[in-house]
Amino acid sequence: MISQTAIHHLVEKLGAKNVLFEKEDLLVYGYDSTPGVHHLPEVVVFPSSNDEVCAALEIAHREGLPIVPRGSGTGLSGGSVPAEGGMVVCLSRMNRILEIDEENLTATAQAGVVTLDLFNAVAAKGLFYPPDPGSQKISTIGGNVAEDAGGLRGLKYGVTRDYVMALSGVLADGSFIRTGGKSVKDVAGYSLRDLLVGSEGTLAIITEVTVKLIPPPKDKRTFLAYFSDIRTAGAAVSKIIAAKIIPSTMEIMDRTTINCIEDYVNIGLPREMAAMLLIEVDGHPAMVAEEAAGVQAILEEVRAAEVHIARDAEHANQLAAARRTALSALARVSPTTLLEDATVPRSCLAETFDEIERLRVKYRLNVGTFGHAGDGNLHPTVLCDERNHDEMARAHAFYNELYEKVLQLGGTVSGEHGIGLAKKEYLRRQIGPGGVAVMRRIKQAFDPQGILNPGKIFTDDEQCADVRIEEGFRVSR
Asked: Which residues 6+ apart lie within 8 Å of 361 measured at CB?
């Protein structure tokens, strides 16, 4: 429990308007975008500088308070939920783009900068920041780094980790750390930068990020292909990659998702189709023309039911925007939306779709699947009602069995959403107790008191007997 003395010191260091401690003010900070998980913090602070973050963490360290970093709360694995109460450090007011360095092709931003704002700012300079998580209109750069966010362009351009050049942050005891820089080559010592990317706030609170920028593609061609069965769509993905064509985007949606999107945005998607692929190729105009011809030939070879090419840039943007609404469209259907993040080798997509369909029938569930087909990252989404305990039990069993199959295929339990609270037990299955033990030792080195985002990613050995598989499906008890 936080003391009144600690609250007084926080107000003194950060100002009264930047410290919340009344229950009604704290409620919203007990959630992120993960369904079914809520834990109330004891205090929320809004620092506006590195010094204020250091001051807040020094106070928390003295008090032994758990510390949970937060951006916009768009996470989907419970990463920014204060599972053990304590202090939420919300970085949304650290939202300045500090520099766009056109000579070195980098941008430096505070952690609270919204992803799309950074994209637009560098685009105005004729540069390109490729990572584009589905929540880019509201997610923040710090959160993207903490979760190693992916996005629609991940197939060709990679994920957040591939663009982070330098990080600044604060350790659990309030000390400041900086790692990396603008040098393209840097192998001096351990790569702490790479260790912090994807660490979900368990090792340090990231406050500033320097990212690599690249020239934007000069041309783009967008395809929309419909299929009478989803296996054929999966085969098309494999054939395109096997032909050594790497689209910037290759997204897939099943019939349930198509219909939900059409109900939501009404852009004329054919409801009777079993699957849809949204494919974009970009780059130099000559290469785009060659790759577009190759994509079209493969779609014809596999006998896609319909193939359409976007009329112009506005139409292409409309189609991409429709894909970005997939989760919102599905979420309108039922009170609870359980979204997962199963990722398999691309060659296993068709088999994975078969497994999803088999399990959907077996457990009598309404499931919509969409995702980044080009990199094997699927989001099977169960549309359910958490008040229906039988239905929730079936949903838990669905995912439990699906992840067994994903791991058998050499896949991973998370391609871009992180582990957080939701998938600790699945991570243990994937990397084994030895892997978890190594991670625990790294955590101990950075955070001896164990106060930085406790309860996330892994559970201490002595607690493992109490882990419930439902926790992997965002059920709080």
From this structure: none
